[in-house]
Queue: 3 jobs
Job 1
Amino acid sequence: MPGLLWYAGALLAWAKGGPPAEISTVTIPKNFMIGTATSAYQVEGAWNVSGKGVSIWDTYVHEHPNLIAGRSNGDIAADSYHQYLQDVAALKKLGVDFYRFSISWPRILPHGQVNVVNQAGIDYYNKLINELIRNKIEPMIAMYHWDLPQTLQDLGGWANPIMAEYFEDYARVLFSKFGDRVKWWITFVDPDITVKSYIPSWNKAPGVNSPHVGLYLAIHTLIQSHSRAHRLYNNEFRDTQKGKLGLFANPIYSSEGDYPQIISEELEKLSIAQGYPKSRLIKFTPEEVTNIKGTFDFLGLNYYTTRLVRAPQPTVDLMNAPDNNVNLIIDPKWPPSASPNLKVVPWGFRKLLNWIKRAYNNTPVLVTGNGFSDRGETEDTERIKYIIVSGTTSTVFSKYYVHSFYKRCP
């Protein structure tokens, strides 16, 4: 099985095989394959048809339309639910080899649990997968991209530990229905955004105000949800389906299978100083640590910008993340993008890859998102320059980053 790499604008590259070739400092290797990515809520539309249940984003945008630019929502979006044939044709014309899309949990399980399975939702994704394969486009599925069924949020959402069990049940449905054709799986896209939704200033569904406690309950549940899905795949599906499944960094990729010691110590100090009787970071039991450790086939990585850090100063806002205990700084000289909080810092991508190589023992990396947003101009020289600076100005791109896939991916 070859290895994978995503680059600018969530483009995907896959080294096909053979030894890594020397490349120039301005050339992306010819044996890399290219793809793109979407999320269900952003493109599917059909929010209340064919048996689909309500998601937290459906609820959030309908109850708080003023929080969304232009009062837009995903009720219709790109209408991919009805226009998937045209979408796949466009992907084929674009020349992509991979398409990463997410499954809408409430489209498959309208009430969030497996007692009711929506066959119309199964049929839709089967048709999409089959059409992609017919056009020689490899499907890659993200199981969760922020659109939790509202019925599960009503039970507490990711702050409720029972969610790990429900996610495993959901994963079993996906593996059994689609795993005969889908070989690449991601459990959670941007899991940090999922848990940061507990910070009210982020203005993201479900809009829960519990930044100091709920956030850490959600982190605990997400990590266990991933580990349960990975162990499920190993135990019931891997031998016959032979796919790969990944997520994110600590503690999944740590040798200990637990939070880094410095995080545990600092959060305990902060929590006690704030009047809590113990740390707000939920501790894993020894059994949970054992179950979490090593539950990966690759590390999923998104990179969009960089922050500089320095020791905290009482007069400086910690950007709604006081537990960071550092000041996050944006260099005013960095070029802007169409997203105000995402400055264009391509060299940070290379530095991050270097750090991951050292920190996680050369773990295979799937770059699931990279690049920067523009304002829709057809002149794309700045993003071309971004690809060059972020990847090919260093031997990291060809000499060990690509080579690590040949060594580590069977």
Job 2
Amino acid sequence: MIAGDLAEPALGLSEAAFDALARNIDVVYHAGATVNWLLPYASVRPANVGGTREILRLAARHRTVPVHYVSSTGVFPQVPTSAPLAVADPIGPAEALLNGYVQSKYVAEHVVALARERGMPVSVYRVDLIAGDAIRGAGQTRDFLWLSLKGLLQAGAVPAHLPGTFHLLPVDYVGAAIVALSGEPANAGRTFHLYNDSGMPFGEFVRLLREHGYELPALDRAVWSGRVRADRDNALIPLLDAFELMCSGAGQFYPPIDTSETRTALAGTGIACPPMTDDLIRSYIRFFVRTGYFPPPR
């Protein structure tokens, strides 16, 4: 293992260490990024755009080795669409994207496109919302959905109207799919969408929290918002504007994504995205309660 820094030239390595690494690698999987919806583009650009550039420079330094770049479905704007967004559909523009993080992924994809034009075999995997593993429910906590649910529990109430549907990707599926896709030579240089075609309305997450023993009365949205804003420690405070945008039903918070190319490429591998079920979400809730991330039911 070699420690480095995506935000630094040569990945934070000495020139000699960078050169030695370039001589010894056979393939690069680039999934590193500064993931933060609140920071402006300028703050995440060094790691997310500059880091991608340095990864490509590493891969091309002595011999061209394949690069597998993990991007985001957030490179598509959050606007209503008549059909699921396909691999060939245009991404961006940057000013139409949700935040600085997805803007940086959009710019990084343009850097990747330039590398492809120069003959580098770079595959792109646009990934949607990654959740915990499908067996144990273990996963990271610092994303919009889990922060939102924690904020609802801290407030002890929910707004009366909760539109929006979430399409979660169990992390074990994401890992298995990328490994399988990247292992097929015919897939080199292609772009794939990883997205759960089955979704769950936000209100169903609330139903499952109530089933777990949480009391979550529905309040008028303005009353609920005032309750959350009065508690500066509520997990939703940094994301409240985005959450209220989702609650308003304005636009299309998460546009549907076409996965036909991914499903075709994975045919015969036995790898398929698990559907969103009550049992899957229950496993996540149990994990968050067990680890203390969610407060215990009263």
Job 3
Amino acid sequence: MGTSTDAEAEVGAGPGILAEVEAEVEAEVEAEVEVEAEVDLRHHGDAEVRGGGGLVDLAVNVRAGTPPAWLKQCVAESLDGLAAYPDGRAARAAVAARHGVPPERVLLTAGAAEAFVLLARALRVRRPVVVHPQFTEPEAALRDAGHRVRRVLLRAEDGFRLDPGAVPADADLVVVGNPTNPTSVLHPAADLVGLARPGRILVVDEAFMDAVPGEREALAGRDDVPGLVVLRSLTKTWGLAGLRIGYVLAAPEIVAELARAQPLWPVSSPALAAAEACVGPRALAEAGHVAHRVAAERGHLVAGLGEVPGVTVAGPAEGPFVLVRVEGAQGVRERLRERGFAVRRGDTFPGLGPEWIRVAVRDRPTTDAFLTALRASLPPAP
């Protein structure tokens, strides 16, 4: 798969115009390289807790503790079949039934991260756009595949809300998260659908949608939106980050194209067993209860942060994490670490500066202890 420049799209123009377009493209590429050098797209929350075994982890947006007992038992029982090669048909059918779509619209992946790599390598796109701030792996995967990525930066003063008019009309691939990591903003489904158009792939990362009560604004299962690709993760709510399991929902022809880019047996048998279990009726009921509990615990965290001088919460937050602005955030993070808490730095997300941190939602005792540590970690008032 090759990539193309904007200049190549103008082959019908005169030589002078073509040279001008080529010069503009070169300038854009130079600017993009400079921006990329300033942001570590491969820095993720797990980096904040490496080497800190005693830290309370508020940096990673994964269920605290271990998976529930019934899920661990399910994974353990799958180990008896490790001598056989993985067979994903049952898990694929279960995911399809969960969303009311035929299995041909489902692709199982080794987490959402693999899906981003497949999209970047398999789809023949020329003008990809990533809406930021958001999870940085989509842009990193696109760049690794040789694409020149344009960014649409949402603004704090607008509440990091999506402005569909800011997305370039010529974009043939648009990637946006919902709810978005790290802003925790839940975009209206109608705004996302408004981005779809013929000849464009619209990728909506719904990795945290099951943490939203009722999954309102979800697009998973929709088959009436042209070019829609929805990504889901089963690692967040169920504490399975080490197992790697997620899936893609898209038109059969897109699923087939992505599947051709996968190696044989890309998802392990234990991960397939977990996938089948996590989309069953029992798991869906439990996930619904968890979503309501997360919403209540998030409200407690946001209320507590609102009482801390010099701290501003981006909002309204709808995910299992909140984005917080605090002056001197780097020093605050270091002092929090000394007091036993790890939070996610924000300046590795395009569009955010060093004054931002992301905090995962946890239970009330953990939140109260964190708030106490945060107050003690703030720089003294001038």
